Structures are given as C-alpha cells and as structure tokens.
## 1
Amino acid sequence: MTLLLKVLGAALCVLTVSSEVVPQADFNLQGMTGKWYLIGFATNAQWFVSRRTSMKSGTALLTPTADGDLDMSFASLNSDGSCWRLNNLAKKTDVPGKFTYTSARWGNENDMSMVDVMYDEYALVHTIKAKASDPTVVNKLYGRGVDLNADVLEKFRQFSLETGVQSENIVFLPKNAECPAA
C-alpha cells in the first residue's frame, strides 16, 4: 500500500508540474523545418541514470506535413559506427505548438510541447511520456548549430529543474559525428 501511494504521489507531482507547461504563444510550425542538433537532455526516467554518461549528441530532422503534423526523424552515431535511428509522426492538437504521438519504438503515448523556440537558434521541447503507471518528463534542447550560448543552456537547466528533473539528470551531451543520410 505504501509503495502504491508513493507511485501515485510521484505521478501526481509529474502531472501537476507538467500541466503548467504551455507551448510558445506564437508558435510557427514552418519555422521548425530542417535539421536540429540535440544538445541538452533532461529526464526523471529511471533508465536514464545508467545511460546518461554514454549518451552523445544526435540530429533531428523535423518536417511539417500538409495537415499540420510534424514528422520527426532522429539519428545518433554509435561508438561502433552504426546509427541509432527513430522516426515518429507527432499529430497536431487544438493548441498550436502541442503535439501527441505514440512512440514507434516503445509504444508509449507522448504529449509534446514546443515551449521556447528561436527558430534560427534553439528549441526547448517538453514531453510527458506515459507508459502504464509511470509517466516521465523528458526535456530536450535542440540547436541549429552544435553550440549554444551559456544563457540558453542555463534557461534549459532552470526549466528542467522547474519541471521536476533532478540536477544530476540534466546533461549537455558531448558532440558527436553525424550519421550518414539514410
């Protein structure tokens, strides 16, 4: 019973903190088009604890669809030279800058919000991943280039703390060579 209460309490905290996160007011879907570099990653997910030191930067190719959805293709070069790839189609919602998608790889439901975007510089993305009774927060910081200024990095760090991520689970990923085009 105590474990159940702890799990429910943690889930409620995640949902309470994350329900306050809203997408950027003047979100422009077309502005998201193109290549982005994954620079920052923050999550309260348990799996991240053992993997955070091995993660490296990757790329995302974002392509708006004619229906207002967002095709997302991710790639990261593994140490053995192979590429880890993931594709998802994020469906638009009634709120501009907010999308939902089912992970093609893990089958979990995701609510994604474009929280803060400077289309030629960076994008701060907040996602709530729901799988069974274990919702998790995932914040990602993307850049148009491989480097972002210290103010943007600090903005991401502060946002992640405000959304319930512990400081040790906020990382700025080491640079990595890119995967060849698929």
Note: The chain has a mean pLDDT of 88.
## 2
Amino acid sequence: MFFKEPKKSDVASTKIAPFHQLEDKVVSNISDQTECDQIQPEVDRLLDRAETAAGIFSTYTTAQVQKIIEAMAQAGKEKAEFYAEWSVRETGYGNVSDNVKKNLDCSLGLLERYQTADFIDPVVDYEKKIISFPKPAGIIVALIPSTNPVMTVYYKAMVSMMTRNTVIFSPHPAAKECSIHVVDLMAQAAEKAGAPEGAIQTIRTPGILSLNCLMESPRVGLILATGGPNRVHGAYRSGNPAIGMGPGNVACFVHQSANIPVAAEQIIASNSFDHALPCVCESVVIADRAIDPQLKAAMGASGGYFVSDEAEEKLRAYLFPDRGVNPLALGKSAAWIAQQAGFSVPEGTKSLIVEIDTVGADEPISQEKLFPVMGYIAVDGVQAAIDTALGMLDTMGKGHSAVIHTNDPAVVARYTAALPVCRIAVNTKGVEGSSGFSTNLTRGPVIGTGFFGGSSVDDNIGPKYLVQWSRAAYPTDLEVSMGDMEAAVAQLLSQSV
C-alpha cells in the first residue's frame, strides 16, 4: 500500500512533531492480507452504489438540487448542538459552543454564500462566442479529520450535493462514531429530498487499508484530502485527482497604525476559538515595538494571559516533552492547560501568551499549535515583522495564511507582497477572515495552500472546484454566428426535466 503509518523514528527526527503527524498516527488495527480482503468488498459496494447514483444525479436540474441542499442545511441546523456535544465528547477536542457555530456556518451558512445555479446551469457568452456546460467530478472521496469531524462532513456533503457529485467519506478512527452518524443524517436528509440512493455514503470500518482501497480506485473522480500529511500525500500518490491541504502557522502582525483595542480583542477571540483547533487561528503575534505596551495591556484585558518566566518553564515542559508535542493538550482550554502544567491563571483567561526572542525550528512556540497558546515577539518596523513572519513560514505553514492589523494600505501591500501565503486576513479574526466568513474570500474551512504549500489550488476549496467545464467555442470571425444559443440550451434543459 502507498499510504503507511509513520514510524516513531520518523516522527522523532524532527525538532517538534506537529499535531498533523499525531493526527496521522491514529490509524487502524487491520494488519494482514486476510483483513484487507475483507475490506475490499465493502469498498466495492460503496463504489457501485456511488457510481450508479452519480449517473442519475448528473442529470438533475438546479431546482432539484436546491431542494436537496436546503433539506440538508435544515437537518444540519437542527442537529448542530447535538453533534457539537458528541464530537467534543468522543474526541476530547474543542468546546461545544464553538462547534455549534462551525456546524451552523457549514450548513445554513453555505446557502447564504453560494448560488446552486452557478455550478449546474450552462453559460452562454455571446461576446466570446463560447457556451459552457458544468460537469461534476462523479465520485468524490472525502477524508474526515479528528479535529473538526462534524463541520467537515457538513461542508463536504453540502458542496458535493451542490455540484451533483456523489461522495464517500472516510472517517478518522478517533472520531468514528460521530462521523458515521452525521454522514447517515446527511444521506437521509438528501435522499428524502430527492437525491439518488447512495449519493452520500461512508466507510464503516475506517482505517488506512480501507482508505487506500478507496482512494486508488480508478472509479474515483476526485479526493478531498483533509488531515495529516501522510493522508494528504497518500491522496496525491493514489493516481486520482486530489486536492490536499497543508498545515498552517499564522503570523499576525500588529502595526503601529492599528486600532489596538479592536486588534487585541480579535486576536484573542480568534486564537481561543474552539481552543485553537482551526488551522487559521493566530499562532504568533508580531508586535510593532512602537505600540508594544498598549498591545500587551489590551490583549490582557481581552482574556490573554502573559505567562511568567517561572510558569513558562512548566508550560514548555508540559507542552513539548521529549522534543515532541503533548497530544493531551490538543484542543484543550487555556485554563485546563495551565492547571496541567502546574500554575494558575485568572478567571476568564482564553489564551496563554509566551514572549519569545526568535522564531524557527528550535522554537516550538513559533510553530502551529492546535491549543490556545500564542507566541509574542516585539520587532522594530515593517521589514522586521516581514522577516519574522518569513522565519516562521520557513519552518512550516507556507501557502496557508497570515493576519495583519493596520490602517495603512501601504503596509498591507508590502506584507502581502512579501509572504508566501495564499490569503491574508486584514483587520479581522484569522479564524473568520481566512476562511471567508468575515471576508469575501471563498467561504469554506478547507484551505488550499497553492504551490507554496504543495497544493494545486491557492483558494479555499469551494464548490467551484468540484465541477469542470465543457466549452464549445465558435470562431472569432464576426461573420460566424452562434445563432439563438440560449433557446437551444433552454430546449435541452426542458427535455431533461
């Protein structure tokens, strides 16, 4: 098989083992060829049903699809709190209230942002003399991470149905129960609203072997790979088209021109959202030294706690034992982490802040942390901030995202031009801005990292990436006419109803 669990020696060879590697380590108990043979029939049954459903679904009209996704969104809304509680209970990651918000954003929220017709209806361009027909990928394989299982199912199921694709999910074993249950809910809602049977399915014995069997099938049209690097690289090596996401490591520069109280409140709220599980949460605050004291005070007033030297020793020992990351801290609150590390924090503390002198491979605080602990470093001016951000990205996070707070457009332009990332959130929370919820970026939690991060897509992965277009192009010669192409398309569509 092309997709293998990392050896312990591989993980230990790096200065710090990122949580994405820990995500890869929880895999499967399946180990021999006999059990592999037992898995293949299940995978074949899933593919058979999905293939039949895909053929039927590709003929659906916009009105038919709209009815389906509205039913799914409503079902997701009604169960948002139920699944938020379940996923936190099963995985131990994050908190219920923020998971409810994520679930709502990835169900009803998608109806607010996208027009289904954009991915189904043909487009006639008389000026360019091109008629374009959107075509679904067919069968999509969608990986579910343990850190955001329900939100991921909501999102990937919704955008798959919105584009007339069928989807087979592969849950992470650490979130198996809630993942399978929510996939079944989405499938039931979709089928009740008219979707073909088998349009939404899931592997029920999740693990590496079943995932490999599924991803390498020539019947698969596209893989949406969310999770650790081994899972993403396995998708790329499968031989099928795949869109993968890389790790984040969000540098947040606060320039002297920023609205300091607003910036501080947004930074703390974003870093502490769902206990910092989203990869777009701020990782390190790079403070312009001119406003360093004011920013520290404002961050403290917003729920940030600057860790003392004595407490920092305890914190580092707890978070980074044996040159790795303590998996028990993943998705836990600042107060819980402080208690485990052996020091107390004021009531209402949302984020632990550690002042650092440098960034890079030797400073784990300057790397992605899926818990609410932020680095803080003061620098002299814009170029020093850029150099610091580049140092972070040289270690990890290229292509992903960054944040800046400033009221000087020239600083935004300079910062954006310098950093090898595909999205920069300006004067907003990283968790909302980079995922398109408080900005007009493509709305979605699946973050493409572009060439910088080893991905083929530099955008958030919205429904437009799940269709491709057949284009009939007429000569540019003005004497050659398309005729009444809109009438021709209308007639074609009326025949398919």
Note: The chain has two domains: 42-244, 250-441.
## 3
Amino acid sequence: MKSAELNQRRLQATPRGVGVMCSYFAEKAENATLWDVEGNEVIDFAAGIAVLNTGHRHPKVIAAVEKQLQAFTHTAYQIVPYESYVSLAERINELAPIEGPAKTAFFTTGAEAVENAVKIARAYTKRPGLITFGGGFHGRTFMTMALTGKVAPYKIGFGPFPGSVYHAVYPNAAHGVTTGDALKSLDRIFKADIAADQVAAIVLEPIQGEGGFNVAPPEFMQALRELCDTNGILLIADEVQTGFARTGKLFAMEYYDIKADLMTMAKSLAGGFPLSGVIGRAEVMDAPAPGGLGGTYAGNPLAVAAAHAVLDVIAEEQLCKRATQLGEHLKEVLNQARQSCPAIADVRGQGSMVAVEFNDPQSGKPSPEITREIQQKAQEQGLLLLSCGVYGNVIRFLYPLTIPDAQFTKALAILARVLKG
C-alpha cells in the first residue's frame, strides 16, 4: 500500500516532533474534498486547520496566483515594493473593526503576526508586560509559546521562555468559570506579579481556537476594554483562527461593541498560501522605527494575490451569511444527537466556528477517549474531524464555507450516525 510505504519513509526521514494525524497522504483536493494516494475520497472538515474557508483550490484564488506567477514571485517588499501589498493593506484597513485611521503590515505565519504585534505594543507603550489567558494558543515560536496557555504538547521540554508574560483565567461557562472569575484573576496578576502600568498589552482570542472554541462573553470584552483604557494597556485580538468569515462575520471582533487596538490575522487570509498580518490604530502601528518590522518573505506577492481573491470570494459568495446558515444547521444536528449521546456536554460556537465537548457520562469528567473514538469512527466513514480543548475532549468543525449543500448534508449524516453509536 502506498500510504504504508510513505509512512515508513516519513518515520525515517522526519522527526517525531512534527506530529501527523492521518495515516493517509493527500494526492489532490477540490473545495471540501480530499483524495489520498490510493484514491480514497475524504470530506475535509479540517481545512488545513481553518486555512481554507474558501475551500481547496478555489478557481478565483488559483487564477489570481497564476496571473501573479507570470509577473514576479519575489522582490522582498522592503527592498522593492509592489502595489498589490499596498492595496491589500488598504482593503483590510477599510474592513477591520479598528477605531480611527488604521494601518496594516503583512508577514508570513500566524505566530509571526503575534510576535510583531507584541513588538509594536512594546514599542508604543514602552512597557514590557504581557497578559494572556489559560487555554489560549498563539503559536510555536518562543514568544508565542510563552503567550500560549497550554503546556502539552506545545511547551514540553522547550523552556525557559521569554519573561514578563502572565496568564489570566478565560471565561468558560461549560467549566463554571464566570466573567467575574476571569476579572478577579487579572486583579490578582496586578497585585502579585506585575503593576498595571508596566503592562504593554492584553492578548486574547475572541473565540479560543486550540483551547476549545470558547467564546468570550460581551461583558468580558467590555470590561477588558475599560481596564485597558484606564491603565494605558493595549488590547490585542488574535484573530488568526477566527478571521475571514468563519464566525459569520469577517472578524469575530465585529460581534462586540468594543474595538481592539491591534488585531492579528493569518490562516484563511490567503486561501492556503502563507500570509499573515497585523492591523492596528495608525499611531500604534507607526511606533516601531523603519526596519523594525519586516521579513524576507513578509507579504509574498503570490500570497497577496491570493488574499485579494479571497476577499472577493467572501463578498461575492456571501460567505459570512453562509457561515451562519451552515453553523445553525450543524448545531441542530449536534443538539439532536444529545438525546442518544449522553457524552455530549456542550455545543457552542459562533457562525461556523462550532464545537462539541464530550464528558464521561458516569464521572462527568472530560473524556478525550470518547472524543478520539468519535473522531476515528468518522474518519473510517470518510469524514475528517479535528479535536481541540485543554483536555482534548472537544471536536471542532472547520469545513470550507464553500462546501456544496449535498456534501454538507452527507457529512452531517455521517456525524449523526457516529454520535448515535
């Protein structure tokens, strides 16, 4: 078998630290469908970990990249700039929920975007401190590992990490953590660890990704904004996983009455091509001196061309509206399944950023075992699902928002069968 042979080669040639979930290997893909090297068809509800909101190989994205390939593939923007970078920044500045004039800088990965947001915040405030939240995920580089609020598997064996990073508690209704609890944890940090006037930024995901698709309550976001304004702290929204129509809005921050000072983005921004960005208030973004931001591949022209096409597709195909419709249908199926699947402890999410959490019906404790079993059974029936959560007991749904209706219905039928046992 091709996959078995390839797996043996993979084990010989690549390190175990790069964990690989599937035992099969991709050969081709189209929209929400993957085919492996043996010709098996898979419905892709992982989408490269939230990268393919516009699906595999969307024709408009492919056409935009092909056109750019015929012009040039690389100059390094900070050496020889190009119009497409500037016009993409203008589009993002117009679309993103930032107060007043905004500016955007482009990078390559989500972690790189978060690192640069930290640099910008420290340059603007002249302060060292950073506060993030338990369950948050911000990347695998050293600063973003420090920011991440989950030890296994991201931090094991890699310390020590950069200092002046403190973790507060994130609200989580399913686990009995209230907004009041979260705010008290911030107060404890200010009393025990670092003075508020030494904190540059509070960094959070409006909906935690790896942490289990936990949605920040509006009153919590309001309180954070007031806390930041009172103490001269910047609020950074990490929208790497939530961005670009996944939640039913272009950005999850649009669900709140408040605005962040800085936002990070990546993943679905460029439809499968490596591109990330930081957008923020113009005066904040201008804090670093010339040369302080950048990178050899930052704002790669092929990825920038893809991102222009992605924004066009989101608007033309009304993917924000579609995300809401698909998510409502999915939640209906999951809530119906609770009648026959007592392990379902919670169904939550915003738009198509939906998750289902599993606990052991006898003990009531989080059950990664049940979660893995459901994930495996779905995979055997041709449906690819991802897990997440601090306890590994959450399944998240990250299908392309362009998925055909008939295929979505088929996938939900598989899901209902698997949950029924």
Note: The two ends are 30 Å apart (CA to CA).
## 4
Amino acid sequence: MESKGYILMKLLLLMNLSVFCVSQDFDFFYFVQQWPGSYCDTQKSCCYPTTGKPAADFGIHGLWPNYRSGSYPSNCDSSNRFQQSQISDLTSSLQRNWPTLACPSSSGIQFWTHEWEKHGTCSESILKQHDYFEAALNLKQRANLLQALTSAGIQPDGGSYSLSSIKGAIKEAIGYTPFVECNVDSSSNSQLYQVYLCVDTSGSDFIECPVFPSGRCGSEIEFPSF
C-alpha cells in the first residue's frame, strides 16, 4: 500500500501542475496601440462608443502575452471571467485611453472583457485583473505615440510619410524599436494602423522586441486624420 506521505506528495504535485496549467508561462508582452482614423478609414464600418467620439489619439488595443517563438497563449482560464466591479476606479480612464470602435456602439465593456479573457488571463499569475488594466494605462502614458510623431513633423493630416521616419520618430522618443502594422483604406492605400512595443513580463518596463509579428507595410504610408 502507498504511504500517507507518498499520497500527500502526489496530491501536492497534481495541485502544482494544475496551477501551472492555469497560469501559463510567457516570455514578454506586446503592448499594442491603434490609430482610430485608420480603423475607421476602411471598407469596414466603425462606430463611436456610447460615450461619444474618442479623442484624435492612439488608443490601446491590448496587452498581449507572447512567446519568443512568435506564438502566444490565449484563453488560459475560462473560470476567471471579466468583472467590471474590479476596475470601477479605472473605467473613465479606460473609456478615454482604451475606447472601442466596433459596431454596434457600446460602452467598451465587451471590448475589455474580450481582451481580459483572451489575453489577460494568460498573465494572471503576475497581473490580476485590476493590475492588468492599470499596467496598460500606465504604459500608454509612457508611450505617447502621437506626441512622438507630431514632434518629428509627422501629422495625422492624410499625408504620406516614410515608414522609416515613423519608426525612427517613435524609437527616438520612447527608446525602443516599434513594429508598425498597416491596413488599407477604401482606395487600397497603405496606412498607419497599429504600433507594437514590447514589455517585460512584469508589465512595467519596455524592452527590445525578441520577435516581431508577421506582416509588412509599404515604404510610404498614409497617416489619416480622425
């Protein structure tokens, strides 16, 4: 027969494995901001949130755990549902800095729910729900993309700018190399859509990206107005 000590050791091992499976290890975060003018200036429609038209500024899309291999964990803990009460003190800041543009118009709760349950639960061993959203808001304050670009003469005026000048302006201001994602407008012109910066696993410090997402922009891209 197995001793009580051996049985206890097996139970503890199973518990540790269970915790490991829920927490999901990862190597870094992508912190992603999107330009609302590019989200809306496509063949797909956009809808302003119920709080009104967002400011003409980059908005947070997400804080996404990632692996150095380029893959990423997702939906890591289905039991850890988004709870609006946990971020009640952050709601007004989230509405300003993390607005939804999806249709139909909404308050943003559905957007934040999706981001937490798909991405945030994969970092819950380090960042609980409130910490996760607070970390993203803090990162946005430290990575003011619009200020970085306009200071370099790159304006959201519908004009075209070189991809290298956009990346250079952001690196000059923030200190780290960004990944720039483009989409296309209704006339199939390439335009500045999202900017990725990499963050360490604590969710607090920017780092150089171990790997960039796939995709590429043209050498000249539009910066549409909003």
Note: The CA atoms of residues 149 and 169 lie 6 Å apart.
